[in-house]
Input
Amino acid sequence: MTADPMDAFSGDLPVGTSTPSSLRVRLKSYGPALALFVGGLLVWEAAVRVFDIQAFVLPKPSTILERLIAQWSVIIAAAGNTMIEALGGLVAGVIGGVIIALITVRWAGAREGIMPFAIATNSIPIIALAPILNNMFPITSPVSKMAAVAIVVFFPVMINTARGLIEVDQSELELMRSYAASPRDVFARVRIPHALPYFFSALKVATTLSIIVAIVAEYFGGPQDVLGQYIIGKANLFVYPDAWAAIVVAAAIGIALYGMVLVTERLSMPWHVSFRAADEK
Amino acid sequence: MSVVEAVNLGKTFGSGSEAVTALSGIDLSIESGEFVSLIGPSGCGKSTLLRLIGDLTRPSSGEITINGKSAEQARRDRDYGIVFQKATLLDWRTVSKNVELPLEIMDEARRSERAAEMLELVQLTDFTSHYPWQLSGGMQQRVAIARALAFKPSLLLMDEPFGALDEMTRELMQQEVLRIWAETGTTVVFVTHSIPEAVFLSTRVLVMSARPGQVSHVIDTSLPHPRTEDTRESNAYYDKVTEVREALRQGERKS
Output
Protein backbone atom coordinates (compact mmCIF):
# COMPACT_ATOMS: atom_id res chain seq x y z
CA MET A 1 0.00 0.00 0.00
CA THR A 2 2.74 2.42 0.86
CA ALA A 3 4.71 3.33 -2.23
CA ASP A 4 8.46 3.48 -2.40
CA PRO A 5 9.41 7.04 -1.41
CA MET A 6 11.67 7.12 -4.47
CA ASP A 7 8.57 7.07 -6.68
CA ALA A 8 7.66 10.53 -5.51
CA PHE A 9 11.05 11.91 -6.47
CA SER A 10 10.83 14.48 -9.21
CA GLY A 11 13.70 16.91 -8.95
CA ASP A 12 15.29 18.47 -5.90
CA LEU A 13 12.43 20.86 -5.17
CA PRO A 14 9.61 19.90 -2.85
CA VAL A 15 6.52 18.98 -4.80
CA GLY A 16 2.87 18.39 -4.12
CA THR A 17 2.35 21.22 -1.66
CA SER A 18 -1.23 22.44 -1.70
CA THR A 19 -1.90 25.39 -3.99
CA PRO A 20 -4.88 27.78 -4.15
CA SER A 21 -6.04 26.14 -7.36
CA SER A 22 -6.29 22.70 -5.75
CA LEU A 23 -9.86 23.33 -4.52
CA ARG A 24 -10.98 24.27 -8.03
CA VAL A 25 -9.17 21.24 -9.41
CA ARG A 26 -10.96 19.02 -6.92
CA LEU A 27 -14.37 20.50 -7.79
CA LYS A 28 -13.57 19.94 -11.43
CA SER A 29 -12.78 16.30 -10.69
CA TYR A 30 -16.28 15.85 -9.23
CA GLY A 31 -17.78 17.21 -12.46
CA PRO A 32 -18.19 13.92 -14.38
CA ALA A 33 -19.79 12.15 -11.39
CA LEU A 34 -22.21 15.02 -10.83
CA ALA A 35 -23.15 15.12 -14.52
CA LEU A 36 -23.74 11.35 -14.54
CA PHE A 37 -25.95 11.61 -11.43
CA VAL A 38 -28.13 14.41 -12.79
CA GLY A 39 -28.21 12.81 -16.25
CA GLY A 40 -29.21 9.46 -14.75
CA LEU A 41 -32.11 11.03 -12.86
CA LEU A 42 -33.35 12.78 -16.00
CA VAL A 43 -33.21 9.56 -18.05
CA TRP A 44 -35.02 7.69 -15.27
CA GLU A 45 -37.76 10.34 -15.06
CA ALA A 46 -38.15 10.43 -18.85
CA ALA A 47 -38.19 6.62 -19.18
CA VAL A 48 -40.97 6.21 -16.58
CA ARG A 49 -43.07 8.86 -18.33
CA VAL A 50 -42.44 7.70 -21.92
CA PHE A 51 -42.88 3.95 -21.31
CA ASP A 52 -45.66 4.56 -18.76
CA ILE A 53 -44.02 2.32 -16.12
CA GLN A 54 -46.29 1.59 -13.13
CA ALA A 55 -45.32 3.14 -9.79
CA PHE A 56 -45.09 -0.27 -8.05
CA VAL A 57 -42.44 -1.31 -10.59
CA LEU A 58 -40.47 1.90 -10.65
CA PRO A 59 -41.74 5.28 -9.45
CA LYS A 60 -40.54 8.58 -10.97
CA PRO A 61 -37.75 10.42 -9.12
CA SER A 62 -40.08 13.40 -8.85
CA THR A 63 -42.74 11.24 -7.16
CA ILE A 64 -40.15 9.89 -4.72
CA LEU A 65 -39.09 13.43 -3.88
CA GLU A 66 -42.74 14.42 -3.38
CA ARG A 67 -43.33 11.52 -0.98
CA LEU A 68 -40.05 12.21 0.82
CA ILE A 69 -41.24 15.76 1.57
CA ALA A 70 -44.69 14.56 2.62
CA GLN A 71 -43.32 11.81 4.91
CA TRP A 72 -40.27 13.78 6.04
CA SER A 73 -40.90 13.85 9.82
CA VAL A 74 -41.83 10.15 9.99
CA ILE A 75 -38.87 9.01 7.86
CA ILE A 76 -36.38 11.20 9.70
CA ALA A 77 -37.51 9.90 13.10
CA ALA A 78 -37.15 6.32 11.82
CA ALA A 79 -33.75 7.13 10.29
CA GLY A 80 -32.58 8.54 13.63
CA ASN A 81 -33.41 5.28 15.41
CA THR A 82 -31.75 3.19 12.70
CA MET A 83 -28.66 5.36 12.90
CA ILE A 84 -28.39 4.83 16.67
CA GLU A 85 -28.39 1.05 16.08
CA ALA A 86 -25.89 1.28 13.22
CA LEU A 87 -23.48 3.62 15.04
CA GLY A 88 -23.71 1.71 18.34
CA GLY A 89 -22.87 -1.53 16.57
CA LEU A 90 -20.20 0.14 14.46
CA VAL A 91 -18.39 1.56 17.49
CA ALA A 92 -18.53 -1.77 19.35
CA GLY A 93 -17.38 -3.78 16.32
CA VAL A 94 -14.56 -1.38 15.45
CA ILE A 95 -13.24 -1.23 19.02
CA GLY A 96 -13.42 -5.03 19.26
CA GLY A 97 -11.71 -5.48 15.89
CA VAL A 98 -8.86 -3.11 16.74
CA ILE A 99 -8.29 -4.65 20.18
CA ILE A 100 -8.19 -8.20 18.80
CA ALA A 101 -5.86 -7.08 15.99
CA LEU A 102 -3.45 -5.49 18.49
CA ILE A 103 -3.49 -8.56 20.72
CA THR A 104 -2.95 -11.07 17.92
CA VAL A 105 -0.05 -9.11 16.44
CA ARG A 106 1.62 -8.42 19.79
CA TRP A 107 1.47 -11.98 21.13
CA ALA A 108 2.01 -14.84 18.68
CA GLY A 109 0.45 -17.31 21.15
CA ALA A 110 -2.78 -15.30 21.22
CA ARG A 111 -2.75 -15.23 17.42
CA GLU A 112 -2.81 -19.02 17.18
CA GLY A 113 -5.64 -19.21 19.69
CA ILE A 114 -7.86 -16.33 18.63
CA MET A 115 -7.46 -16.15 14.85
CA PRO A 116 -9.58 -19.20 13.89
CA PHE A 117 -12.52 -17.87 15.89
CA ALA A 118 -12.07 -14.33 14.62
CA ILE A 119 -12.10 -15.61 11.06
CA ALA A 120 -15.14 -17.77 11.84
CA THR A 121 -17.17 -14.63 12.60
CA ASN A 122 -16.87 -13.81 8.91
CA SER A 123 -18.80 -16.98 8.04
CA ILE A 124 -21.78 -16.26 10.32
CA PRO A 125 -24.84 -15.76 8.06
CA ILE A 126 -26.24 -12.54 9.51
CA ILE A 127 -29.67 -13.18 7.93
CA ALA A 128 -29.92 -16.35 10.00
CA LEU A 129 -28.49 -14.82 13.16
CA ALA A 130 -30.58 -11.62 13.24
CA PRO A 131 -33.90 -13.27 14.28
CA ILE A 132 -32.08 -15.21 17.01
CA LEU A 133 -30.43 -12.04 18.32
CA ASN A 134 -33.86 -10.36 18.34
CA ASN A 135 -35.08 -12.99 20.79
CA MET A 136 -31.99 -12.70 22.97
CA PHE A 137 -32.75 -9.10 23.94
CA PRO A 138 -36.02 -7.29 24.89
CA ILE A 139 -38.08 -6.70 21.73
CA THR A 140 -37.92 -2.88 22.09
CA SER A 141 -34.17 -2.81 22.73
CA PRO A 142 -31.82 -1.59 19.99
CA VAL A 143 -29.07 -3.82 21.41
CA SER A 144 -29.99 -6.85 19.25
CA LYS A 145 -29.50 -4.76 16.09
CA MET A 146 -26.27 -3.30 17.45
CA ALA A 147 -25.00 -6.81 18.12
CA ALA A 148 -25.74 -7.87 14.53
CA VAL A 149 -23.90 -4.79 13.20
CA ALA A 150 -20.95 -5.33 15.56
CA ILE A 151 -20.54 -8.97 14.48
CA VAL A 152 -20.52 -8.03 10.79
CA VAL A 153 -18.13 -5.06 10.99
CA PHE A 154 -15.73 -6.80 13.40
CA PHE A 155 -14.08 -8.99 10.78
CA PRO A 156 -13.03 -6.48 8.10
CA VAL A 157 -11.71 -4.10 10.77
CA MET A 158 -9.80 -6.83 12.61
CA ILE A 159 -8.23 -8.48 9.57
CA ASN A 160 -7.19 -5.22 7.84
CA THR A 161 -5.79 -3.62 10.99
CA ALA A 162 -3.85 -6.79 11.78
CA ARG A 163 -2.42 -6.82 8.26
CA GLY A 164 -1.32 -3.19 8.58
CA LEU A 165 0.33 -3.93 11.92
CA ILE A 166 2.15 -6.98 10.53
CA GLU A 167 3.20 -5.86 7.05
CA VAL A 168 5.87 -3.45 8.25
CA ASP A 169 9.05 -3.01 6.22
CA GLN A 170 11.71 -5.38 7.59
CA SER A 171 14.35 -2.65 7.55
CA GLU A 172 12.15 -0.42 9.74
CA LEU A 173 12.05 -3.22 12.32
CA GLU A 174 15.84 -3.67 12.07
CA LEU A 175 16.26 0.05 12.59
CA MET A 176 14.17 -0.19 15.77
CA ARG A 177 16.22 -3.19 16.85
CA SER A 178 19.43 -1.18 16.37
CA TYR A 179 17.99 1.36 18.83
CA ALA A 180 17.21 -1.47 21.29
CA ALA A 181 13.60 -0.20 21.18
CA SER A 182 11.00 -1.86 23.41
CA PRO A 183 8.07 -3.75 21.80
CA ARG A 184 5.88 -0.90 23.01
CA ASP A 185 7.98 1.65 21.10
CA VAL A 186 7.85 -0.52 17.98
CA PHE A 187 4.05 -0.52 18.22
CA ALA A 188 3.59 3.14 19.00
CA ARG A 189 6.11 4.53 16.54
CA VAL A 190 6.13 2.07 13.64
CA ARG A 191 3.34 -0.51 13.60
CA ILE A 192 0.34 1.65 14.55
CA PRO A 193 1.12 4.57 12.18
CA HIS A 194 1.75 1.99 9.48
CA ALA A 195 -1.64 0.36 10.13
CA LEU A 196 -3.63 3.61 9.92
CA PRO A 197 -4.28 3.49 6.13
CA TYR A 198 -5.36 -0.16 6.44
CA PHE A 199 -7.65 0.72 9.34
CA PHE A 200 -9.33 3.52 7.42
CA SER A 201 -9.89 1.31 4.38
CA ALA A 202 -11.67 -1.14 6.65
CA LEU A 203 -13.61 1.62 8.39
CA LYS A 204 -15.03 2.79 5.04
CA VAL A 205 -16.35 -0.71 4.35
CA ALA A 206 -17.61 -1.09 7.94
CA THR A 207 -19.50 2.22 7.91
CA THR A 208 -21.50 1.30 4.81
CA LEU A 209 -22.09 -2.23 6.13
CA SER A 210 -23.40 -0.92 9.46
CA ILE A 211 -26.44 0.83 7.90
CA ILE A 212 -27.21 -2.17 5.67
CA VAL A 213 -27.01 -4.69 8.51
CA ALA A 214 -29.08 -2.52 10.86
CA ILE A 215 -31.90 -2.30 8.29
CA VAL A 216 -31.76 -6.03 7.52
CA ALA A 217 -31.91 -6.83 11.25
CA GLU A 218 -34.95 -4.54 11.57
CA TYR A 219 -36.87 -6.63 9.00
CA PHE A 220 -37.06 -9.44 11.58
CA GLY A 221 -39.11 -7.40 14.04
CA GLY A 222 -38.65 -5.01 16.94
CA PRO A 223 -39.63 -1.34 17.30
CA GLN A 224 -41.74 0.00 14.41
CA ASP A 225 -40.25 3.50 14.10
CA VAL A 226 -37.12 2.39 12.20
CA LEU A 227 -36.24 2.45 8.50
CA GLY A 228 -36.38 -1.34 8.02
CA GLN A 229 -39.93 -1.60 9.42
CA TYR A 230 -41.02 1.53 7.55
CA ILE A 231 -39.82 0.14 4.21
CA ILE A 232 -41.31 -3.32 4.78
CA GLY A 233 -44.61 -1.81 6.01
CA LYS A 234 -44.98 0.50 3.02
CA ALA A 235 -44.02 -2.29 0.61
CA ASN A 236 -46.70 -4.56 2.11
CA LEU A 237 -49.27 -1.80 1.53
CA PHE A 238 -48.01 -1.34 -2.06
CA VAL A 239 -47.04 2.28 -1.30
CA TYR A 240 -43.76 1.90 -3.14
CA PRO A 241 -42.86 5.58 -3.60
CA ASP A 242 -42.83 5.96 0.22
CA ALA A 243 -40.55 2.93 0.55
CA TRP A 244 -38.28 4.44 -2.09
CA ALA A 245 -38.14 7.71 -0.15
CA ALA A 246 -36.91 5.81 2.91
CA ILE A 247 -34.31 3.99 0.78
CA VAL A 248 -33.04 7.34 -0.47
CA VAL A 249 -32.62 8.53 3.13
CA ALA A 250 -30.82 5.29 4.10
CA ALA A 251 -28.41 5.74 1.18
CA ALA A 252 -27.87 9.40 2.12
CA ILE A 253 -26.94 8.39 5.68
CA GLY A 254 -24.48 5.81 4.34
CA ILE A 255 -22.87 8.38 2.06
CA ALA A 256 -22.69 10.98 4.84
CA LEU A 257 -21.01 8.56 7.26
CA TYR A 258 -18.59 7.48 4.52
CA GLY A 259 -17.75 11.14 3.88
CA MET A 260 -17.05 11.69 7.57
CA VAL A 261 -14.61 8.78 7.54
CA LEU A 262 -12.88 10.26 4.47
CA VAL A 263 -12.43 13.62 6.18
CA THR A 264 -11.13 12.01 9.40
CA GLU A 265 -8.74 9.90 7.35
CA ARG A 266 -7.36 12.92 5.56
CA LEU A 267 -6.93 14.89 8.77
CA SER A 268 -5.24 12.08 10.66
CA MET A 269 -2.71 11.14 7.97
CA PRO A 270 -2.00 14.09 5.68
CA TRP A 271 1.31 12.44 4.79
CA HIS A 272 -0.30 9.52 3.02
CA VAL A 273 0.51 8.76 -0.62
CA SER A 274 -3.14 8.75 -1.74
CA PHE A 275 -3.52 12.43 -0.84
CA ARG A 276 -0.32 13.44 -2.59
CA ALA A 277 -1.63 12.16 -5.88
CA ALA A 278 -4.85 14.18 -5.49
CA ASP A 279 -2.88 17.38 -4.97
CA GLU A 280 -0.51 16.85 -7.84
CA LYS A 281 -3.13 16.26 -10.50
CA MET B 1 41.42 0.21 22.17
CA SER B 2 39.85 -1.41 19.18
CA VAL B 3 36.20 -0.67 18.52
CA VAL B 4 35.41 -3.90 16.66
CA GLU B 5 37.24 -7.13 17.46
CA ALA B 6 36.32 -10.45 15.84
CA VAL B 7 38.05 -13.80 16.28
CA ASN B 8 37.40 -16.78 13.99
CA LEU B 9 33.89 -15.47 13.30
CA GLY B 10 31.57 -17.68 11.23
CA LYS B 11 27.95 -17.59 10.12
CA THR B 12 25.98 -20.46 8.60
CA PHE B 13 22.40 -20.11 7.34
CA GLY B 14 20.14 -23.15 7.42
CA SER B 15 21.17 -26.58 8.58
CA GLY B 16 21.91 -30.08 7.32
CA SER B 17 22.36 -30.52 3.58
CA GLU B 18 20.85 -27.08 2.89
CA ALA B 19 23.32 -25.23 5.11
CA VAL B 20 25.06 -22.28 3.47
CA THR B 21 28.25 -20.96 4.98
CA ALA B 22 28.07 -17.20 4.58
CA LEU B 23 31.17 -16.37 6.59
CA SER B 24 34.01 -18.43 7.94
CA GLY B 25 37.17 -17.73 9.92
CA ILE B 26 36.87 -13.95 10.00
CA ASP B 27 39.49 -12.21 12.13
CA LEU B 28 38.98 -8.50 12.38
CA SER B 29 40.24 -5.57 14.39
CA ILE B 30 39.03 -2.04 13.74
CA GLU B 31 40.63 0.78 15.69
CA SER B 32 38.86 3.90 16.94
CA GLY B 33 38.66 6.63 14.29
CA GLU B 34 39.22 4.30 11.35
CA PHE B 35 37.16 4.29 8.16
CA VAL B 36 37.03 0.67 7.05
CA SER B 37 35.33 -0.52 3.88
CA LEU B 38 34.18 -4.08 3.24
CA ILE B 39 34.20 -4.88 -0.47
CA GLY B 40 33.62 -8.10 -2.37
CA PRO B 41 31.42 -9.89 -4.90
CA SER B 42 27.77 -10.40 -4.05
CA GLY B 43 27.35 -13.39 -1.76
CA CYS B 44 30.68 -12.83 0.00
CA GLY B 45 28.87 -12.04 3.25
CA LYS B 46 29.93 -8.40 3.59
CA SER B 47 26.44 -7.31 4.66
CA THR B 48 26.19 -10.31 6.98
CA LEU B 49 29.45 -9.25 8.63
CA LEU B 50 28.05 -5.74 9.15
CA ARG B 51 24.86 -7.21 10.61
CA LEU B 52 26.93 -9.34 12.99
CA ILE B 53 28.71 -6.21 14.20
CA GLY B 54 25.30 -4.58 14.77
CA ASP B 55 23.82 -7.67 16.50
CA LEU B 56 21.06 -7.77 13.86
CA THR B 57 22.00 -11.43 13.42
CA ARG B 58 23.95 -13.83 15.65
CA PRO B 59 27.21 -15.62 14.76
CA SER B 60 27.28 -19.42 14.36
CA SER B 61 30.85 -19.63 15.63
CA GLY B 62 33.64 -17.43 16.93
CA GLU B 63 33.54 -14.26 18.99
CA ILE B 64 32.80 -10.64 18.30
CA THR B 65 33.17 -7.71 20.68
CA ILE B 66 32.27 -4.05 20.24
CA ASN B 67 34.01 -1.56 22.52
CA GLY B 68 35.11 -4.55 24.63
CA LYS B 69 31.49 -5.73 25.14
CA SER B 70 29.39 -8.41 23.49
CA ALA B 71 27.66 -7.24 20.30
CA GLU B 72 24.29 -7.55 22.04
CA GLN B 73 25.36 -5.44 24.99
CA ALA B 74 26.80 -2.84 22.60
CA ARG B 75 23.46 -2.68 20.75
CA ARG B 76 21.58 -2.32 24.05
CA ASP B 77 24.00 0.46 25.02
CA ARG B 78 23.27 2.16 21.67
CA ASP B 79 26.95 2.12 20.71
CA TYR B 80 26.31 2.30 16.98
CA GLY B 81 24.15 4.05 14.39
CA ILE B 82 23.22 2.33 11.15
CA VAL B 83 22.39 3.48 7.60
CA PHE B 84 20.85 1.03 5.12
CA GLN B 85 20.79 1.10 1.32
CA LYS B 86 17.17 2.25 1.58
CA ALA B 87 16.84 5.44 3.62
CA THR B 88 14.10 3.77 5.72
CA LEU B 89 12.58 7.06 6.80
CA LEU B 90 9.13 6.89 8.41
CA ASP B 91 6.61 8.34 5.91
CA TRP B 92 4.45 9.93 8.60
CA ARG B 93 7.24 11.91 10.20
CA THR B 94 8.77 15.14 8.98
CA VAL B 95 12.52 15.28 8.33
CA SER B 96 13.33 16.64 11.81
CA LYS B 97 10.89 14.22 13.51
CA ASN B 98 12.64 11.36 11.70
CA VAL B 99 15.99 12.52 13.08
CA GLU B 100 14.41 12.77 16.54
CA LEU B 101 13.13 9.17 16.41
CA PRO B 102 16.14 7.51 18.13
CA LEU B 103 16.28 10.37 20.66
CA GLU B 104 12.62 9.77 21.58
CA ILE B 105 13.22 6.07 22.03
CA MET B 106 16.32 6.74 24.13
CA ASP B 107 14.38 9.37 26.06
CA GLU B 108 17.00 12.05 25.54
CA ALA B 109 16.55 15.74 26.28
CA ARG B 110 16.83 18.69 23.86
CA ARG B 111 15.58 16.58 20.97
CA SER B 112 14.65 19.34 18.55
CA GLU B 113 17.95 21.15 19.16
CA ARG B 114 19.87 17.93 18.55
CA ALA B 115 17.92 17.28 15.36
CA ALA B 116 18.59 20.83 14.17
CA GLU B 117 22.34 20.41 14.79
CA MET B 118 22.37 17.12 12.88
CA LEU B 119 20.45 18.56 9.95
CA GLU B 120 22.94 21.40 9.85
CA LEU B 121 25.73 18.81 9.73
CA VAL B 122 24.17 17.18 6.66
CA GLN B 123 23.19 20.59 5.22
CA LEU B 124 19.43 20.11 5.18
CA THR B 125 18.49 23.02 7.44
CA ASP B 126 15.90 24.29 4.93
CA PHE B 127 14.02 21.00 4.84
CA THR B 128 13.32 20.28 8.52
CA SER B 129 9.52 20.38 8.17
CA HIS B 130 9.30 18.54 4.84
CA TYR B 131 8.07 14.98 4.55
CA PRO B 132 10.46 12.28 3.24
CA TRP B 133 8.63 11.89 -0.08
CA GLN B 134 9.26 15.54 -0.85
CA LEU B 135 13.04 14.91 -0.90
CA SER B 136 15.30 13.43 -3.55
CA GLY B 137 17.02 10.08 -2.95
CA GLY B 138 20.30 11.74 -1.98
CA MET B 139 18.57 14.06 0.49
CA GLN B 140 16.68 11.16 2.04
CA GLN B 141 19.96 9.33 2.57
CA ARG B 142 21.44 12.43 4.22
CA VAL B 143 18.49 12.46 6.64
CA ALA B 144 19.22 8.79 7.39
CA ILE B 145 22.85 9.71 8.18
CA ALA B 146 21.73 12.57 10.43
CA ARG B 147 19.38 10.17 12.24
CA ALA B 148 22.15 7.57 12.68
CA LEU B 149 24.46 10.17 14.24
CA ALA B 150 21.81 12.01 16.31
CA PHE B 151 22.61 10.13 19.52
CA LYS B 152 26.40 10.45 19.02
CA PRO B 153 27.27 6.76 18.66
CA SER B 154 31.00 5.90 18.63
CA LEU B 155 30.48 3.62 15.62
CA LEU B 156 28.65 4.20 12.33
CA LEU B 157 27.64 1.18 10.24
CA MET B 158 26.76 1.82 6.59
CA ASP B 159 25.35 -0.91 4.35
CA GLU B 160 25.77 0.17 0.70
CA PRO B 161 24.22 3.52 1.61
CA PHE B 162 24.76 5.06 -1.82
CA GLY B 163 23.97 1.96 -3.88
CA ALA B 164 20.69 3.39 -5.17
CA LEU B 165 22.04 6.86 -6.04
CA ASP B 166 23.24 8.12 -9.40
CA GLU B 167 26.97 8.60 -9.94
CA MET B 168 26.99 12.40 -9.50
CA THR B 169 24.98 12.34 -6.28
CA ARG B 170 27.07 9.45 -5.11
CA GLU B 171 30.35 11.36 -5.42
CA LEU B 172 28.84 14.35 -3.60
CA MET B 173 27.63 12.07 -0.82
CA GLN B 174 31.10 10.54 -0.48
CA GLN B 175 32.55 14.01 0.09
CA GLU B 176 29.82 14.67 2.67
CA VAL B 177 30.55 11.48 4.55
CA LEU B 178 34.28 12.20 4.67
CA ARG B 179 33.57 15.70 6.00
CA ILE B 180 31.20 14.32 8.66
CA TRP B 181 33.71 11.62 9.57
CA ALA B 182 36.42 14.26 10.03
CA GLU B 183 34.10 16.54 12.05
CA THR B 184 32.70 13.88 14.38
CA GLY B 185 35.63 11.46 14.72
CA THR B 186 33.19 8.52 14.48
CA THR B 187 34.57 5.11 13.52
CA VAL B 188 32.94 3.98 10.26
CA VAL B 189 32.41 0.48 8.82
CA PHE B 190 31.21 0.85 5.24
CA VAL B 191 29.91 -1.93 2.98
CA THR B 192 30.17 -1.26 -0.76
CA HIS B 193 30.61 -3.01 -4.10
CA SER B 194 32.22 0.01 -5.71
CA ILE B 195 36.03 -0.10 -5.88
CA PRO B 196 36.52 3.68 -6.38
CA GLU B 197 34.14 4.40 -3.53
CA ALA B 198 36.00 2.08 -1.16
CA VAL B 199 39.39 3.57 -2.06
CA PHE B 200 38.22 7.19 -1.93
CA LEU B 201 36.57 6.88 1.50
CA SER B 202 38.63 4.43 3.50
CA THR B 203 41.72 4.32 5.62
CA ARG B 204 41.64 0.55 5.12
CA VAL B 205 39.85 -1.72 2.64
CA LEU B 206 39.00 -5.32 3.54
CA VAL B 207 38.66 -7.32 0.33
CA MET B 208 36.38 -10.34 0.71
CA SER B 209 35.95 -13.48 -1.37
CA ALA B 210 32.87 -15.69 -1.60
CA ARG B 211 32.00 -19.33 -0.82
CA PRO B 212 32.79 -19.25 2.01
CA GLY B 213 32.94 -15.54 2.80
CA GLN B 214 36.43 -14.67 3.97
CA VAL B 215 38.67 -11.63 4.18
CA SER B 216 41.23 -12.34 1.44
CA HIS B 217 43.22 -9.08 1.44
CA VAL B 218 43.65 -6.06 3.67
CA ILE B 219 44.75 -2.96 1.76
CA ASP B 220 45.89 0.22 3.45
CA THR B 221 44.55 3.19 1.51
CA SER B 222 46.72 5.80 3.13
CA LEU B 223 46.00 8.63 0.69
CA PRO B 224 46.44 12.09 2.21
CA HIS B 225 43.50 13.87 3.87
CA PRO B 226 41.47 15.91 3.17
CA ARG B 227 40.48 14.04 0.05
CA THR B 228 39.02 16.17 -2.72
CA GLU B 229 38.07 15.90 -6.37
CA ASP B 230 41.83 16.13 -7.09
CA THR B 231 42.36 12.94 -5.09
CA ARG B 232 40.21 11.09 -7.62
CA GLU B 233 42.63 12.10 -10.36
CA SER B 234 45.89 11.40 -8.54
CA ASN B 235 48.24 8.54 -9.42
CA ALA B 236 48.31 7.26 -5.85
CA TYR B 237 44.49 6.87 -6.06
CA TYR B 238 44.70 4.99 -9.38
CA ASP B 239 47.35 2.68 -7.92
CA LYS B 240 45.14 1.85 -4.94
CA VAL B 241 42.08 1.26 -7.18
CA THR B 242 44.21 -1.14 -9.24
CA GLU B 243 45.48 -2.89 -6.13
CA VAL B 244 41.93 -3.46 -4.83
CA ARG B 245 40.75 -4.62 -8.26
CA GLU B 246 43.56 -7.17 -8.53
CA ALA B 247 42.87 -8.41 -5.01
CA LEU B 248 39.21 -8.90 -5.95
CA ARG B 249 40.22 -10.85 -9.08
CA GLN B 250 42.51 -13.12 -7.07
CA GLY B 251 39.64 -13.78 -4.69
CA GLU B 252 37.40 -14.68 -7.65
CA ARG B 253 39.95 -17.11 -9.09
CA LYS B 254 40.42 -18.78 -5.76
CA SER B 255 36.73 -19.64 -5.41
In short: Chain A touches chain B through 32 residues (CB under 8 Å). The CA atoms of residues 191 and 235 of chain A lie 49 Å apart. Confidence is low (pLDDT under 50) at residues 1-20 of chain A.
